[in-house]
């Protein structure tokens, strides 16, 4: 399914309908895009898909970026807008405190790891991040950290789990319609680039967290 099959006008119409679904709640619901894939068109490796997409617009919610670092890079991280900085001493503590490790895994939307610490971070945090659909991301100390953090505030992970579909947040009710349309278009383009053939995509839906899915009809 491509931009020729999902026109911007139809995408906008579906998002507008989804936003009107259900009663108003005391919190801003996320807006999610669901892309259903045809199992018959997928290769075995497609069912292990994990791709990071940087959306044009960040969701209107707090995205918590955690940094695993040591030395001068940890000092830089503590002076940044990171939600949490995890140094080697904390990793050592977490290796024998699975409950605290799980708590950190729940709290961090993205975990960026200094390349030299990827081995120990993967061993300690990997088992608690993986089941939550999260992955540690290696970074080098020469990275412009503030810029990287801002980029990951716009990042989403496209992942195929047990079912042949990708479900990803494209924003919240706090985002404008234009922002949601552009974010959805970026996700669709990334999926199209991944699968090459439009026939691998069976259907596309948009929904609020607690709303019913609205199908985006092909042109």
TrEMBL record:
InterPro entries membership: Ribosomal_uL1, Ribosomal_uL1-like, Ribosomal_uL1/biogenesis, Ribosomal_uL1_3-a/b-sand, Ribosomal_uL1_arc
GO process annotations (BP): regulation of translation; translation
Assigned GO CC terms: large ribosomal subunit
CDD domains: Ribosomal_L1
Keywords in alphabetical order: Repressor, Ribonucleoprotein, Ribosomal protein, RNA-binding, rRNA-binding, Translation regulation, tRNA-binding
Keyword DNA-binding part of the UniProt annotation: no
Domain of life, per lineage: Archaea
GO MF terms, alphabetically ordered: rRNA binding; structural constituent of ribosome; tRNA binding
Family to which this protein belongs: Belongs to the universal ribosomal protein uL1 family.
Description of how the protein assembles with itself and partners: Part of the 50S ribosomal subunit.
Function: Probably involved in E site tRNA release. Binds directly to 23S rRNA.
Name assigned to this protein: Large ribosomal subunit protein uL1
Gene behind the chain: rpl1
């Amino acid at each position: 399914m491509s931009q020729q099959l999902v026109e911007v006008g139809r995408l906008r119409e579906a998002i507008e309908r989804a936003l009107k679904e259900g009663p108003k709640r005391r919190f801003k619901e996320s807006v999610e895009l669901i892309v259903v894939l045809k199992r018959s068109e997928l290769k075995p490796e497609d069912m292990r898909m994990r791709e990071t997409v940087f959306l044009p617009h960040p969701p209107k919610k707090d995205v918590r970026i955690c940094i695993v670092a040591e030395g001068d890079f940890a000092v830089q991280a503590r002076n940044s807008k990171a939600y949490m900085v995890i140094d080697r001493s904390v990793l050592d503590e977490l290796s024998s405190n699975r409950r605290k490790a799980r708590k950190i895994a729940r709290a961090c939307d993205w975990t960026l790891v200094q390349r030299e610490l990827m081995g120990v971070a993967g061993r300690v945090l990997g088992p608690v991040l993986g089941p939550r659909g999260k992955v540690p991301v290696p970074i080098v100390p020469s990275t412009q950290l503030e810029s990287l953090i801002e980029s990951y505030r716009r990042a989403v992970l496209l992942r195929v789990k047990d079912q042949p579909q990708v479900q990803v947040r494209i924003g919240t009710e706090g985002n404008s319609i234009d922002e949601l349309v552009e974010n959805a278009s970026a996700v669709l383009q990334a999926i199209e680039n991944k699968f090459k053939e439009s026939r691998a995509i069976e259907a596309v839906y948009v929904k609020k967290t607690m709303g019913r899915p609205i199908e985006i009809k092909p042109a």
